[in-house]
Amino acid sequence: CSGPMPANIAALSLSPARLAVVGELGYETPTPIQVEGIPLLLAGKDLIAQSKTGSGKTAAFALPILQKIELASRSLQALIICPTRELAAQVARELRKLGRKHEGLAVLEIVGGQTVRPQVDALARGVHIAVGTPGRLLDHLQRGTLECASLKTVVLDEADRMLDMGFGADVESILRKLPSSRQTVLFSATYPTTIEALSGGYQRDPVRVTIDDTETDAPMLRQFFIETEPAQKLEALYWSLQHYPHESVLIFCNFKASVATLEDSLSLSGFSVDRLDGDLEQFQRDQVLARFRNESLRVLIATDVAGRGIDVEDLDLVINYELPDKANIYVHRIGRTGRAGKAGVAVSLATRREKSKIKAIEQTTGQVLERVELASGYAPDVRRLAREAKMQTILISGGRKDKVRPGDILGALTGEAGGLKGDDIGKIEIQDRLSYVAIARPVARSAAKSINSGRIKGKRFRATLLG
């Protein structure tokens, strides 16, 4: 489907309250998926939306959900199912941000890796929207702690990845337990037969919306590949880092062992680098992702399983150190850069034996990857490449449930006790019981000291310097 692009987001069928919030947040021109999807969702239609990561899809389903929420009824009215905890956290953050003028709006994350009891207690008090991963959601449904009688809308976000990860049976079990009168929405970057089958079994007369690469951010995403042999891969990586300017880079490997080896090499060379793999505890993963999001970490190396759900604004560069076996995995990897009209670069390091993978990627994406020749005799300037991140992260032992807000932290740091300039403070990320704050590296230590010796909203919280 395609339609005329409204001049601004006010041309969509959103309520004045929704428009006020999106205006405050700086949303002006809607993305194609928002243009197509929002009116259909507001009309109650089932929807299959094929749209890549970074296309504005979260707001496309979040705004209609928020517009239809009945705040007076503290019952579950919308459920968003995500493949990973990180994506669930990202979606929940966006819902809270877009719903900040909804007095009393209750959004709950229901994911694994956390104790069940707080989730059970929150559900007993009543929530309007739940965002969760398949396994934990199914667990609550089987326990009877997730009451869905009032459910109006269910969204499957990154549905193709959910099925690729083996969650198909859990997802179908969840859908069978939900009210048949619900609105069912599928968002997917690709449209394999598994998605077609899922739609056929659980949607009613769905409208399919496909946002082509030409309609979204693809022209802003330049894709290259370098043919290299395994022994020269590190050299090719250095060349890519030197020739494609970036503040942050996400590097994908296929295996945990490759991630660990590459992290060791870059760390020994002085890079600001960390890793995401399946061996990390959730708390460690949260810390790594927070540091990467707020520019306290310049290089992040991840496997596909560990890297799902990564969402970073203005990510400059994605490098496939190892090419994935499936072209649709490549699509998800590179979808994290060049988003929403912003420039981005994706570089893939491919051996001669992987020419068939490059061809499959080109067929899937409909774009030719530009081949780049590595200059002979290239000698990387590792010292220049390995510069420090400009920010450092402070972890504060208080969050949303402690009534801590970004303005409280900002006030504590810039007030008389903290003495920092506003320019010294970067992104402030508030979670349930923790907060992550990016501070200019030269003043980060003194900032942590001022938090530890002072108070936020009259309470003492512990500040720890990360990285």
Largest sheet: 7 strands, parallel
- How much of the sequence is in beta strands? 15-25%
Number of strands: 18
Rg result: 22 Å
Q: Helix segment count?
A: 18
Q: What sort of overall outline do the alpha carbons produce when their principal axes are compared?
A: globular
Plain-language structure description:
Helices cover 37% and strands 18% of the residues. It is globular. It has helices at residues 16-24, 32-42, 57-68, 85-98, 116-125, 134-143, 159-164, 168-177, 193-202, 233-243, 256-268, 282-293, 304-307, 327-334, 355-365, 382-385, 406-414, 444-453, and strands at residues 47-50, 78-81, 107-110, 129-132, 153-156, 183-188, 207-210, 221-227, 249-252, 273-276, 299-302, 317-320, 344-350, 370-372, 391-396, 425-430, 435-440, 463-466. It has a 7-stranded parallel beta sheet with strand order 3-4-2-5-6-1-7, with helices on both faces. It is built from 18 helices and 18 strands. With 467 residues, the chain is of the alpha/beta class. Helix 12 (282-293) links the parallel strand 10 and strand 11.
